Amino acid sequence: MSFVPSIPLWLKNKFLQSNMKFRNFKMVGYVVYGRGSFNQLNEIIEPHRKEDDPMIFLVDHFFKGKSLINRLPLRGHDKVVFADVTYEPKTSLVDKLAQQLKDEFGKVSGIIGIGGGSTMDLAKAVSLMMNNPGSSSDYQGWDLVKFPGVYKAGIPTLSGTGAEVSRTCVLTGPTKKLGMNSDFTPFDQIVLDPELTTNAPVNQRFYTGMDCYIHCIESLNGTYLNEFSKSYGEKALQLCRKVFVDKREWDDESDDQLMMASYAGGMSIAYSQVGVAHAVSYGLSYLLGTKHGIGNCIVFDKLEEYYPDGVKEFKFMVEKNKIDIPQNITKGLSDEQFDTMINVSMGMKPLWENALGRDWEKTMTREKLRKLYERL
Amino acid sequence: MSFVPSIPLWLKNKFLQSNMKFRNFKMVGYVVYGRGSFNQLNEIIEPHRKEDDPMIFLVDHFFKGKSLINRLPLRGHDKVVFADVTYEPKTSLVDKLAQQLKDEFGKVSGIIGIGGGSTMDLAKAVSLMMNNPGSSSDYQGWDLVKFPGVYKAGIPTLSGTGAEVSRTCVLTGPTKKLGMNSDFTPFDQIVLDPELTTNAPVNQRFYTGMDCYIHCIESLNGTYLNEFSKSYGEKALQLCRKVFVDKREWDDESDDQLMMASYAGGMSIAYSQVGVAHAVSYGLSYLLGTKHGIGNCIVFDKLEEYYPDGVKEFKFMVEKNKIDIPQNITKGLSDEQFDTMINVSMGMKPLWENALGRDWEKTMTREKLRKLYERL
């Protein structure tokens, strides 16, 4: 017996995935790791150039006017597009960028995302929307994407999000903040060159690094885990500690190790789940637009009740690395606004269940969550 | 400027790879990890069935008559082929199997390799030879394979070789023992189900596990390493220690952890190199046909001069796990035979250089190597 051919592959995949107890994890196509590996970008993308169709370099606006731009291997109609990632990417921005590229070039050879998690997620989403009809908001969810995107490569310039290896791209849409989770979403290529993270601003570097650290603490203390994710999570955590706890000063090795921590942390997501910090920070992000890395830090700083050892170590790292964690960001919010955050947060059931067990609603009441939000 | 279209992709890739300082590492397509994930095999391979073309299950002959065979998701013309891996796979066997499949079916949907490193390597090679002309011996080397193989999946039933994630498949040919190293070689899918390793014979399980352990000791003590390979190597080594040093008795967790050790050890190969044990054991394997895992153990047992801590720990593990390491296997060999082994071993320049530095020939003379072989 074979499947009736009229069932499209994406629907077949969606059906099959949903029947599987263990996630069948789609890996990125190629990985290159090394100081200076960015210099190989020309050779790496060359085989993926299609006639005169340009490569689009989608670059974090942080690099406007910086020397990295002169190192891009531009050819023919290739274009550099700066991504304003002051806020996390919106579906409307994805749709606009994809439409502009279609209007200007018809087709493109590929999208090369260079930046932090937001830029990489944006690059994945634009790649997908070059080949899928409608709006990116139609595909927020699991296995809704119908066609593979154009060739896409991710080049992190900040370490910690794990976006370089994830099968999602988190987007804020008209009705929800949710990624385009699909087997078409992971990059075809990632270039891990720790040199590119050398000049990251110290606070930003810390917040993004803590995205990895906090994820590991949450998943390793959770109820949902197997040896695959545990191995990766432990390695990521150990590397974060080397960098932020043990090291006397930041050096090249710190960049090398934090880049591997991010990669390992991202891989560990395959069979693990995050916990309280993520559940609470989603509320902040929804209401106030707080970015993921810093939001997690603001929340985790107050979670001594749930992760006592982790929070103690976190506070040590904050002090040692002379980092500012914003305080009192919920001061003056209305009851209605607190309710919005609480509603968003309470909706993250799998996260709460992973952190506090099946009876999590007995432990985490709306009143208790309100008190927690008031402390942020 | 574009490449002239008449240059085929494989040649372009070969040219480009050779110009790259950092290897651009091709990953396996999909990974599923979990106890019982083998039960998802039907759903996993379903989207890759092409009309009536059969899936070929290439299974280690160890499983002949065992219950695993009844769990294979056979359909239509699917065929089970048992692989005799008493000796490591030969190019002649690869060619014969591929020809038989072509004669019987014309085309096949895919090759599913189920077994240890030899079986998985055989599956990769047969997959490639379904779509490449000539003999597999024509492709022993680096980036010589011209066309992608048919769909191929690897399912380890022994942990330690790392063959599940490697970009090679080691074959003994008419003139050399060398793999078909190429970007077409890695599996499209691997299924990591630790349950499948439960009933492995104790000695065999140890030898294969030590393939991973010894690799890690050699690469972590070598001169050629970066943070990517170091992270994976350290994790693999730590897991080997948990299993073979710390554990009081073998249990399910041992199988879980050793399977991850193998995977991590395999990934660590990307930017690392092996050393003395491999260089010496290649000589044994060439002359006597000694299999890789046990050969490495026989050699490593005598390498206290080069890896003092590792060999001490190895001897502890041998004793603790009540393992037999064969002794005196070179007794009675002729001078000519010793010379053959020495020639093969001295030819492994990158391994010696990694272990002993650029001036390795001053440290490891033919006389010294002869004495080492005499002790095995």
Keywords:
homodimer, 376 residues, alpha/beta, six-stranded parallel beta sheet, three-stranded mixed beta sheet, 10 strands, disordered N terminus
Descriptive notes:
Two copies of one chain form a homodimer. By secondary structure, the first copy, chain A, is of the alpha/beta class. Chain A is 45% helix and 11% strand. Chain A has 14 helices and ten strands. In chain A, strands 2-10-7-5-3-4 form a six-stranded parallel β-sheet, with helices on one face. In chain A, strands 6-9-8 form a three-stranded mixed β-sheet, with helices on one face. The radius of gyration of chain A is 21 Å and the shape is globular. The N and C termini of chain A lie far apart (58 Å). The N terminus of chain A is likely disordered. At the A-B interface, α1, β1, β2, α6 and α7 of A face α1, β1, β2, α6 and α7 of B.
- How many helices of chain A? The count is 14
Oligomeric category: homodimer
Radius of gyration of chain A, in angstroms, nearest whole number? 21 Å
Pattern of helices and strands of chain A? HEEHEEHEHEEEEEHHHHHHHHHH
Largest interface: A-B, 56 and 56 residues
Average pLDDT of chain A works out at: 94
Uncertain residue segments of chain A = 1-6
Instruction: Report how far apart the termini of chain A are.
Output: 58 Å
Q: Percent helix among the residues of chain A?
A: 40-55%
Strand content of chain A: 5-15%
Q: Strand pairing plus helix content of chain A: what structural class?
A: alpha/beta
What is the global morphology of chain A? globular
